[in-house]
Amino acid sequence: MSLERLIEEIRLRAERELDDERKLGDAQEKAILDERERRVRQLVDEGQKLAETDAARERAQKLASAKLQARKLVYETRERQTAQALATVRESLAEFTEDPEYPAALKRMVAFATDRLGKQLHIVGRAEDASVLRAAAGKNFDPDHPVPILGGLIAETPDGNRRLNLSFDELLRLREDEVRSLLP
Q1: DSSP element (H, E) containing 47
Q2: Domain co-membership, 44 together with 81
Q3: What confidence tens digit (pLDDT) does each residue in 68-101 have?
Q4: Whether residue 47 is found in the same domain as residue 110
Q5: Whether this model's pTM surpasses 0.85
Q6: Mean pLDDT, residues 147-159 taken together
Q7: CA 182 to chain centre
Q8: Interatomic CA distance for residues 164 and 123, integer angstroms
Q9: Nearest residue to 142 via CA among 127, 164, 162
């Protein structure tokens, strides 16, 4: 072999190796760029999903807050209406104390209390009802201790062990839940 041919062969082999190295470098550069592109896409997708999740969570929180606020307003409205209705009931009971049937109702209350607690009673009521209660309960009525109630009476045994509160206030309080359920 001649020297020129040997040089030519070394040059060709060097060019081939250099070409292989370029191809390998290009392939590695392409792989790195592809990996970078894939990672960028992945990060963008994760960011979008996170943003969508956060937006959905925020929408759900705002919706839940709005629903809670609406329920609160409905509840407050119902309570206001119920309070107005109960005030109307209280007014009606106060008006009933001036009705001609009220003394008969007090007499029935005295009879009921006597049946429940016995003949020996201590009965108190409003100062305005003193004459009717004295007539219905006799010596069992205590006019010296009037109570601030809408109407009705309160009876208890002389020893104070048993008490029957037939005041309109107490009867309304005991049936307030029932009255609330009847209201719209």
Answers
A1: helix 3-96
A2: yes
A3: 999 999 989 888 888 888 888 888 888 888 888 9
A4: no
A5: no
A6: 90
A7: 21
A8: 10
A9: 127
Q: In the chain, how long is the greatest CA-to-CA distance? A: 152
Domain that holds residue 55: 1-96
- The structural domain count of the chain equals 2
Locus of tokens 């429940």? 116
Separation CA 134–CA 147 (nearest Å): 15
Residues 90 and 109 in one domain: no
Enter the DSSP assignment of 97: T
Do 64 and 131 lie in one domain? The reply is no
The single residue listed with the structure tokens 């959905």 is 56
Residues 79 and 167 in one domain: no
> Would you state the structure tokens that stand for residue 136, as one six-digit string?
């219905």
Handedness of CA 36, 40, 45, 49 (dihedral sign): positive
What are the pLDDT digits (tens) for 27-63? 898 989 899 999 999 999 998 999 999 999 999 999 9
Task: State whether 81 and 4 are in the same domain.
Answer: yes
Backbone angles phi and psi of 160, in degrees to 5: 80, 10
